[in-house]
Amino acid sequence: MPSGKMVKFILYEVLQFAALIVPIFVIMERFALLIHRLKKLDLTVYWLVVAVSIAYVTSVTLLVWAPLKYVILKRPTALAYLILSTLPCFAVLIASSKVQVDMGCKLDHFVELPVSLVLFSLICVDIIERIRPCNLTGKSDSLNPDFDMPGPVLTHLEQVTTVSAQLHPNESQNSLTQGRPETRNGRTSRRWEDFAGSPSSRAYLYSSSSRSWSYSGPFSFLWWKDERSEVVLDSFLFWLDTAEMLRITGETSIFYSGWVFPVYILCFLSTLRIIITPQNPLLSFAGFFLQDLPFFIIRVALIAVFGNVTPVFYPLKNVLVSLTFIYFTFLTKLRIFNRRRMF
User: Where is this region: Disordered (predicted)?
Assistant: First the structure.
């Protein structure tokens, strides 16, 4: 009887291998059917293209994918997936557009299933890589130990030596006399009591986390959360902008024009972010240079040439993310933006 870890390992490997080969087979089959309809020949060309796809998948699996999985099971698998599956699929989609334009016949612009399948398989690979350290049954293990805090934490702080303690005895005595609480009718001033009880004078630092919420009432099930399900949601939200950019290629006016080249190239460059782990500081930098900035430029150009082929929401999102990245990363370090008295 195989252990639970072995079952999870086999399940993940089967899903990743399916995500590798299924998009290739689907797109190559559509491409083979397109060539058959354009050439108007017998099924020889069709089966030849299908045989090429089978030979490619077999050779890639035996020579690259299986040895890579045997040696390492870390993030480089995502890079191998991009090179072996996503890049060939995008190349076939660009080739299908070029072939139809050269033949002067518009039969198939590969909308819906092929493009969506490529991106969905990429998201599945991303989810598997992120959720691999977690258990599939029982209580979830924290994906980010830095935020695994059950509730508010009181951290004891050492007492800081005051300035008055470092002065000479005379100066210290004068200073303490001036800072002594005022006594009226045998009672200490309320202002001094407030100061003594203020957070700045306490020897504890109160820290809290968003994970500290709890509720034990009849609707406690509404408060339940699991990081494994959040990984799936975060992955789909992470690739939402790329999905919209790929949707633009489904427009007939764009697919049968030269604009399909930069759109697919920029989409592939944005997929390179899958190589970076979610907690890596390079992720925001890669998101700016590989997605938001180039996507904003290409979207503005597409709207100027073809009209409203994409919602205005997405270029606004790109420009807002780009501006905030530039401001908080670079401009805040300048002297004019580094004044604490401003705001």
Answer: 168-194
* Distances from the Cα of 41 to the Cα of 33, 38, 123, angstroms: 11, 8, 38
Q: Which of 182, 190, 25 is nearest to 114 (CA)?
A: 25
The number of helices, as runs of H, and strands, as runs of E, in the chain is 15, 4
pLDDT, position 5: 83
Residue 76: the pLDDT is 64
Question: Is residue 160 very low, low, confident or very high in pLDDT (cuts 50, 70, 90)?
Answer: low
Pull the structure tokens for residue 228: 């494994």
pLDDT at 154 exceeding the cut of 50: no
DSSP state of 140: P
Pull the structure tokens for residue 94.
Answer: 């660009």
Cβ contact 110:93 at 8 Å: yes
- What's the pLDDT tens digit per position in 49-63? 999 999 999 999 999
Sequence-distant (6+) residues with CB within 8 A of 236 are 123
The helix/strand/coil state of 204 is strand
Q: Tokens representing 202?
A: 């306490």
- Euclidean distance between CA atoms 3 and 6, whole angstroms: 5
Give the global pTM: 0.75
* Tokens standing for residue 179: 């800072």
Segment 306-314 mean pLDDT:
92
